[in-house]
Amino acid sequence: MGQLTNKGYVGERLDSILADLDQGFRAIYGNDIDLAPDSPDGQMLGLIAQIRADLEELGEVTYRALDPDHASGAWLEQRVAYAGLTRRQARYSYLRGAALTGRAGTLIPAGSVLRDINRGRWLLVADITLGTDGSARADLRSELLGAFNLPANSALTIETLVLGWDTATNLAAAEVGAEEETDPELRARFYRSRSRPAQNSLDGLVAALLQLADVRQVVGLENTGSTADADGVPGHSLNLIVDGGEEQAIAQAIFLRKPAGTGLMGQQSRTVVDGQGVNRLIRFDRPAMVDCKAFVQLRRDAEFTAIDVAAIKAQLAQLDFRIGQDVQLSRLYSPINTVQGFWVEQLKIGRRSGALAADNIVIGVRERARFAQADIEVVVL
Q1: If phi over 0 gives left and psi between -120 and 50 gives alpha, with beta otherwise, what is residue 194?
Q2: For 238-271, how does the pLDDT look when each residue is reduced to its tens digit (9 = 90+)?
Q3: Run of H or E including 242
Q4: How far is the first Cα of the chain from the last one, in angstroms, to the nearest whole number?
Q5: 141-157 residue pLDDT tens
Q6: Secondary structure of residue 188 in the 3-state scheme
Q7: Residue 217, SS3?
Q8: Is 107 left (phi over 0), alpha (psi -120 to 50) or beta?
Q9: 297 φ/ψ angles, rounded to the nearest 5 degrees
Q10: CA dihedral sign of residues 368, 374, 375, 379
Q11: Long-range pairs for 306-314: beta carbons < 8 A, 24 or more residues apart
């Protein structure tokens, strides 16, 4: 039989099992017994040996599955659970800043459904009211979890009929989501979590929120004083700003990790039932998306005749800003200069609703900046 030793599990192999059974049969029936592989006794001995060998292999596989280096599937999920981790589920794909047009003042409710050219369905993330010019920008997410690609400037078919809503077009390529976390990805995250444990309760709370499906960014603001601070957080309170994720799951994670007696602030609120059956109101915030625009004036190098303007716009639109991160003018030159054949003569940026200037765009602690290709003007001289 296999043995557990100080070096691990050591199983017995088929040839050793056959030898032991052969010796046992001869001790009982005598040395003249016919145990040739094609004899009836030999075939029975072979069946018994194979059964034992299969059990030995099962024991070895079970032992190896207890090691995170070799575990897979549900076995790996059980191992990483000791570190408080769960497998990340698939993330939604998004269409950022899609253009909606129709009659001015029309309210388009969240959850309205649109269909793309691949018959994929997209949902409006939040309520949108069309402006005085009959247009607005809105974020859409895929109906299903997973990676769904859609090229820029693709027309979307409206499935949820809203009186006064005429058209919808995605102005930028889809922000592709992700499929369910694979075993190697989960194993790597497990090892990272073991090497970088949370230093305090707020770190642990942020880490727990980042484990939720479709959560991309989390910022935690903490005020340990007795009066409101510069960020507007009341005394002895927390303000969690969460980008992505399902709201009830976010509220549950905050409830489970929030220090006792600490207040919560935020525009979003969900109710969680505690262990005593009491309803607890959990508050948090979503980042307000700040649509930015840019004007880039380029001077063509003498040896170049064509400049890839679309590539320049794509580089700026792909910038991923953190919550509360200012848009720094000087940092935009690097992605622009990945395209060759010119030098930047003038660069101005600003909020889409404001004026352009050769200066940084200040972003609030509860805001997140982004560029859409349609809001970037490139002039080549």
Answers
A1: alpha
A2: 999 999 889 999 999 999 888 888 999 999 999 9
A3: strand 237-244
A4: 82
A5: 999 988 898 988 898 99
A6: helix
A7: strand
A8: beta
A9: -110, 125
A10: positive
A11: 306/341, 307/339, 307/341, 307/342, 307/380, 308/339, 308/341, 309/378, 309/380, 310/373, 311/338, 311/339, 312/336, 312/339, 312/376, 312/378, 313/373, 313/376, 313/378, 314/373
Query: Which of 27-36, 160-169, 322-331 has the lowest average pLDDT?
Result: 27-36
Total number of residues shown for the chain: 381
9-48 burial code (b ≥16 CB/10 A, e <16): bebbeeeebbeebeeebeeeeeeeeebeeeeeebeebeee
Residue 193 has pLDDT above 70, yes or no: no
* CB neighbour class for 321 (10 Å; exposed up to 12, middle 13-18, buried from 19): buried
Nearest CA to 202 out of 133, 254, 272 is that of 254
Q: How far apart are CA 61 and CA 64, in angstroms?
A: 5
Tokens of 288: 């307000």
CB-based contact 286:246 (threshold 8 Å): no
Q: Which residues contact 326 (CB under 8 A, 6 or more apart)?
A: 360, 361, 362, 363, 369
Q: Give the residue extent of every domain in the chain.
A: 3-65, 94-170, 198-284, 288-380
CATH fold of 198-284, please?
A: GMP Synthetase; Chain A, domain 3 (3.30.300)
Other CB atoms within a 10 A radius of the CB of residue 117 amount to 11
Q: Do 216 and 177 contact (CB within 8 A), yes or no? A: no
**How far, in Å, CA of 135 to CA of 245, rounded?**
27
The amino acid at 188: A
pLDDT digits (tens, 9 = 90+) for 74-120: 888 888 888 778 887 788 999 988 999 999 999 999 999 999 998 99
Strand 121-124 vs strand 107-108: parallel, antiparallel, or unpaired? unpaired
Question: Pick from 230, 227, 288, 219: which is nearest to 263 by CA?
Answer: 227
Q: H/E/C letters for each residue in 263-299?
A: EECCCEEEEEECCCCCEEEEEEECCEEEEEEEEEEEE
255, 360 Cβ separation under 8 angstroms: no
